[in-house]
Amino acid sequence: MRGVIEKLQKARRVLVVSHQDPDGDALGSSLAMGRLLAARDAEVRLYSAGPIPPEYRFLPGLELVADQLPPAGWCDLALLLDCHQLKRTGPKAAAYLERVDKLAVIDHHRGPVNLDGAAWVDPRRAATCEMIARMAAAAGWPLDQETAVCLFVGIQTDTGSFRYSNCTAEVFRLAGDLVAAGADPWQISQEVYATSLQRMRLWGRVVQGLELLAGGKLAVGQVSLEDLAATGCAPEDLENVVEGLRAIRGVEVALLLRQREEGGVKISIRSRGALDVSAVAMALGGGGHHNAAGAIVDGDLDQVRGKVQAMLLELMEAA
Ligand SMILES: [Mn+2]
User: One fold for both 2-192 and 197-318?
Assistant: First the structure.
């Protein structure tokens, strides 16, 4: 953390980059960091390859998050948030970051860290926003209300609304500080958990086709391009669906597969308790956490489904 604070204190022009398909933590941490740096008179650009899910459009300053990179050589520091692999930022940003001299990282995902620069990667932390809240306190940087809202959203969404096992006493304390600084949990929750008729219809399709395997311990759902087209949904409308599958009593692992327009299949895996699904995701070129992981896998829906199902069944048998 100290190394990152030092780099941030010296930097005058900072490019903040989070991962592709940003979630509440990626967007919340980018916007909060942008505000904290601007308050210290640094020039800041925020980049995300998108798409930005509609439930986060209320975040203060969201219009500053662009899928446009500054001219080469603009920044004296690039800060990678909520990921620590260049490829997670999307092809455009990854190529750009290859050529940046100074890099810093704040992230809580598992996986090998082989980046030069100040990398603060701590998989024990529930959210990148939790890390930034701790860093701001350690550095003595005050939080205004907007920053508190952004950090609260990241912590709230990455803990499944304060339900997951990553939600420690310290996370509750930090969240309490953010509420005291002006983050309103009810107002924020109304925005973050609002749904739509299209989404409900997509949910219906996933549930209709849902399969329970291994005596009800493995739930597998899938979404084809046709499902998206028929319901008028976009890929980002699937946020929280896989968590819903895991919530079925008796299910230990939930797998959601989504056919991608760009080719290949996006898989999201969730587990309960001791079952570590990040290893399966990593073996497929992805990553994540103990109980929540994902990857993009080449192949069509049936092929990828068969392959990943087999890997998960093996993992569950070994456990
Ligand atoms: Mn996160």
Answer: no
Ligand 1 centroid–CA 18 distance in Å is 10
Give the residue from 259, 257, 228, 229 showing the smallest Cα distance to 242. 257
The domain spans of the chain are 2-192, 197-318
Which CATH topology does 2-192 take? Answer: inorganic pyrophosphatase (n-terminal core) (3.90.1640)
What is the chain's length? 319
Architecture of domain 197-318: Roll (3.10)
In the reported structure, the alpha carbon of residue 128 is separated from the centroid of ligand 1 by a whole-number distance in angstroms of 5
Q: What is the mean pLDDT of residues 214-230?
A: 98
Residue 63: CB atoms within 10 Å: 9
Q: How far is the CA of 316 from the centre of ligand 1 (A)?
A: 25
pLDDT band (50, 70, 90) for residue 240: confident
Q: For residue 54, is pLDDT > 80?
A: yes
Cα 29 to averaged position of ligand 1 atoms, centre (Å)? 9
Q: Give this prediction's pTM.
A: 0.89
Please give the distance, rounded to the nearest whole angstrom, from the Cα atom of residue 121 to the centre of ligand 1: 11
**Which pLDDT does position 111 carry in this prediction?**
79
Distance of CA 2 to the CA centre of its chain: 24
Q: How far is the CA of 72 from the centre of ligand 1 (A)?
A: 28
Give the C-alpha separation, 66 to 63, whole Å.
Answer: 7
First to last CA, the chain: 35
The per-residue pLDDT of the chain, averaged, comes to: 95
Dihedral of CA 34/37/43/49: which sign? negative
Q: Which helix or strand (DSSP H or E) is residue 66 part of? A: strand 65-66
Q: How far is the CA of 292 from the centre of ligand 1 (A)?
A: 10
